[in-house]
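Review form for a predicted model. The reviewer records the input and the model, then writes brief findings.
Reviewer: anonymous (R2)
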Amino acid sequence: MLSGRQIRIAYLISQYPAFNHTFILREIRQLRQMGFDIHVVSIRGADRPFEHLTSEEQEEQRATFYVKPAGVASTLAAHLRMLFIRPLSYALGLLYSLRLSAWNMRAAVTNLLYFAEAVVFADWMRRQGLSHFHMHFTSTVGLIVRHAWPVRASVTIHGPDEFSDPAGFYMRQKIETFDLLCTISQFGRSQLMLQSGYSQYNKFRVSRLGVDPHVYTPRPFSGNPSRFEIISVGRLAPAKGFHVLVAALDRLLREGRSVRLRLVGDGPDRAGLEQHVAKLDLGQHVIFEGRQNADRVLNLYQEADIFALPSFAEGIPVVLMEAMAMEIPCVTTWITGIPELIRNEVDGLLIPPSSEEDLAAALERLMDDSALRLRLGKSGRQRVLERFDLKRNTELLANILCDFVT
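Model under review:
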């Protein structure tokens, strides 16, 4: 039995609820089922109007404290309270924020904004009587809080941005300041080791993400579909490599293949991708589904024959776990933490990043071999059941947090 029933802890998140942070919602709700008393703080408001949220997201929004949406008056009141009650901590936080910027004017402005948010969060923790907090993504705010106020802090580091620009993300300072750092992969743990000395290694824990296999259940298998449905889910950003996927699709169509691609998600690369699709005259073969709630994505998975994700940089994508749990054979790149999820030729097909030729060949191979699709799909689900089950992995995180808090 976990000792989480007595544990009160704050969760500091950059945006909650959010399409891209559904896995955080699942983690929090699972921890609450285990007896944790979790209080959520989000820097930004939800990424959709309240009426567009799922019922679970609406419930979470009602219980969440929001920093920016609280407004200027609330922010000023928090600063005045903290300046009066803890003037030394306030001054330390302010000076530390400026020192982090190394006297770079742009960084100084950004860090002062982070300081403003940190004070609101620290004041809220004080009023709630909380002394421990865990973070996802908004760790620079947490860094300022932990440095200046008498609280303990843990963080989950996802990657890949923190690993490609460790100086810009203040990774060394965070490793030295935070009490516990979780990573979602062994690869992530190795990157923290790369940025630190051996004396810090004892702070690092691997805490894998997961999905609920009772929600993501096998979809009907089609041995010989008249048109292959390829799905890809993720933020439409350069790191996802979607232009490579569009180019691979064009190759397949020029070879006479009957295939359609659904891109689920939105982001800064959408306009460029739409232009790419238009240039290749693929408008009837590529559907931009936009951002969708988890329920709608689940329905789209039901219609898919293959999941493709040609990323250049990743942590370990939860969308791959979702597809695998539904026995959708996956093609993705052999990078960062992905091989810890998918074993090449066992649970899916791994290809070199940036190669439209290799991606097209892998997709063709799956299209031509129904037995391979079936085998990889079933093995993929078994992999999720064994290593990436949400309940089991959240229990492991719960044990980590119990040891940390107590």
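Findings: The chain has two domains: 3-210+390-405, 228-387.
Further findings: The domain at 3-210+390-405 is CATH 3.40.50.2000 (Rossmann fold).
Recommendation: see findings above.
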